[in-house]
Amino acid sequence: MSDLVVDFIVSLDGYGAAGGWPGYWGMEGPEYLGWLGQDGALEQTVLMGATTYRLMSGFAAEIPDDPGLAGLTAMSKVVFSSTLRAPLSWANTELVDGDAVAAVRAMKERGTRPLRTVGSVSLCRSLLAAGLVDRYRVVVFPVITGATGTDRVYDGYPDVALDLVDSRLFDGRLQLLEYVPTVLAGPPGAT
Question: Which superfamily does CATH assign the domain made up of 8-183 to?
Answer without folding.
Answer: Dihydrofolate Reductase, subunit A (3.40.430.10)
